[in-house]
Amino acid sequence: MIASDPAGLVGRLREFDRLIALLDDAVARRGGGAVSITGEPGIGKSALVGAVTGHARASGWAVLEGRGHDLESLLAFGPLAAALGGHLHRMPRARRLAYTEGLRSLGTVVEGLGTDGPPDAVTPTDRSRVFQAVALLLGRIAADAPVLLVVDDLHWADPATVDVLRYLSGDLDALGVVLLVALRPATPRPDVRGLVSVLARSPRHEAVTLRRLDGAAVAALAADLLGGPVARPLVAMLERRSAGTPLVVQALVQDLRARGALRQRPDGWAGTEPDPDTPAHLLELFGAGLDRLPPDRRQVLELVALGGEPVPHARLAALAGDDGLTTRVDDLRAAGLLVEERVHGRVRYAPAHPLVADAALARLGQAARAALHARYVAVLEAEGAAPPDVLARHHLGARDVVGTGRARAALADAGIAALRRAAPDTALRWLTAAVDMAEGDPAVLGPLLFDLGIARQQCGDAAGALAALRDAATQLNRAGDPRGAATAATVTARLSWLRDDIAGARRSSALTLELAATADPATRAATAQAHALQLVCLGDDPAVALAVLDGTDVAAVPDAGARARLAGFERYVRMVAGHGPADGALAALRPVAPRCPDQRLELACSNARLELTVLLGRWTELDAELAAAQELGERGVGPLRSWRSPLAEFHRRFATGDWPGADDLLTELADSPWGAHRPVELHALRTWMALHRGDVPGPDGIVGPPGPDGAPLEPRGPERDLHRTLRVLAGASSGPGGGYLVMFEWWRLLACVRASAGRRALLATATDLDRLGGPGSAPAALAARARALGSAERGEAARHAALAAAAFDALGMPVDAATARIEAAERGGGRDGLAADLVLLDRLGARPLAARARDLLGRPAGAPRGPVLTPREREVAELVTDGLSNAAIAERLVVSVRTVTSHLDHVYTKLGIGSRTELAREIRSTQ
């Protein structure tokens, strides 16, 4: 049990050490002291008390334990009788009589002591003899061994026990007694508050307030209970449902295990239920006393619980009535059911624990709950500024009261808002409910099905997404919306291609032209361009795609802004088809023209500009493009943060030598909805970094991204091309596939240079790169590197490599520049700059390149190392060794606490350790 094993006190070891230090000090002084442990129900007070008493017993202390009970609060001296009687009755009779000799008043507290004569009568006004007898008894016991007197759940102790403890509090040091009490905060009883106040003024007092566990501690506790690591989704569920309360974590884990709702995956234990029911005994524990609340108090609690978030005072007054609200709230706070917080000067209320809310709502009937939801809808709509999720939750609960039409509209708005902020799981919930409420009107059902398809796709349900998108195209066509129908078919075609369904992609892409035939000129042009781009992705002859573009009449588009952007996007598609330079396409995508009224076209152009800016290595221009993408998100065009934005930022950080920053971004993305639903891209980014660090020994080390069960997925579609490209970069002899996405074109081009077997092929690749990028671009720099690799004459090769290094330096790409300088030196060129390059490569952990530079400089290799930590992982590990908490490390590195926790998880896995103590020992051994 955790209570008997200090090592199991997850998140409480610091408090345990403080209390043991107080006990050790009391023994050294032959004195006493006081301890008060405060915390809400289930927070671990009893576990900490048990660990301390277990240590004390093992150290030779006389431990006297008692506990208050809710149903025994009127039984005089209850906890004290348990503490004294339990200790006395365990010893031989002769010894017990020696301790209690002359203390007849103890018989009032402890039955069956066998003291000489009947116990003295004790009146309510004169109990001093009982108090003195207890003090004398404790003093006698303390003469033989240090005494630890424990009263757990002091808030339920009877008044007589509290009075005795207050009497003892002034003489604890003289008696040689340490008094330890544990209680809930904000108890309404003045006698208990008075005792705690007196103890706090004791010269030897330790006050411990137990807080809720953070996410890392919840994960550690769950791992301790299950005997192994726990997967992130299960940790997230436990953290959300328990709010960091250890007792709830234990109960949820035990319930899941008892019901067989747990399974082991390569990444740890995982649950089979995303949101399991709360065990009944937890509802009873946190709902104790709710049935005894007056109706007006109970309704306030129900309204706050139903809110799902802290409820401002003004909103609660509108919901429950302002008459006497402050008194009702104060009563609920005093009962430990409600908490008050002040944010920016505004008072808000929340249930004291999520399970208090669950217990309160479990007692509500469906009709009563719907009526309260309807009351929320009226108040929130009157306010006019409620978050979409909040309004949708109450509309869903009140749909039978407010009407399905109003509820459906609110749910649709919330779903679209969730998609914009990259929360597809939330969007899926709202949009599914909205579709269920649709009544067959194609004009209503079509847009809902389209958004539902996008949500399903972002959640990884490709089959469900395709079904919804096909239905959306059908419904939108019936509704007389050719633009919407063509858009749905375009997305269907792209998703089919991503699933390796080439025939399905062709059918859907061809259907787009048919659906858009009766649309306006701008829609016809945009659809034709999307179809041409899809043909290139499908691997068709580029001439076919170019013929589609040639048949498009962009000049017929009446709006100047739309016409200019369509012309720019056409240049982009032609460039992807191999006709035209990337810099020309990028310039065309930045027209000096009025803003386009077609927001989807604006978003498509923004995404294309992001991709081309990365491809060309124009890192100084990237901030403007990222800001433009963010502005489109804030205007309601697509997601607030397109997935291309973090990809572009990753490429910049990596290319400009900020590998720790790139590592941080990957860690943040892995914990985001983006990472959860785009495993291919995330896996590719991690593999890309691993290749540069030498963590992948060769092409056989490139495996597919892991699936839900941890086993590698079989690459298919464009993923297969990316997988092949990564293998080529790791040394495979086969050539790379076609472009995966333009965002990854840089990798494909590098693979072309790496894989080309002959000089002729390398020189042809260089020509293609020059045509693609133009002077001063990253492709042009790579072209110089290709010519260096393809030159037969060493001097010519060294000259081209030096030109490549200079070009990469000008672009601010230090690792690529170092690579070119190393290749120049290996071909007989000078070694200028290699020493600085070696320092950079060692700092970044680019071991293969560093080894080549070290050989050229004639420097010895470093000592063999164990598992390699990334620079950021090493930095986090060293800060842990310095004694910093996760929060302090996050503040130092300007990252989130979750990011620090993820880095530590990777460190623990790589080093095969499981604690901060082991980590500190390991890091010190390598310093």
TrEMBL record:
Keywords carried by this UniProt record: ATP-binding, Nucleotide-binding
InterPro entries found in the cross-reference section: AAA_16, P-loop_NTPase, Sig_transdc_resp-reg_C-effctor, Tscrpt_reg_LuxR_C, WH-like_DNA-bd_sf
Statement: the UniProt record of this protein carries the keyword ATP-binding: yes
GO CC, any one term: cytoplasm
GO BP terms in the entry: regulation of DNA-templated transcription
Domain HTH luxR-type: 862-927
GO molecular function, one term: adenylate cyclase activity
Protein name in UniProt: AAA family ATPase
UniProt organism field: Pseudonocardia petroleophila
Biological classification of the source: Bacteria, Bacillati, Actinomycetota, Actinomycetes, Pseudonocardiales
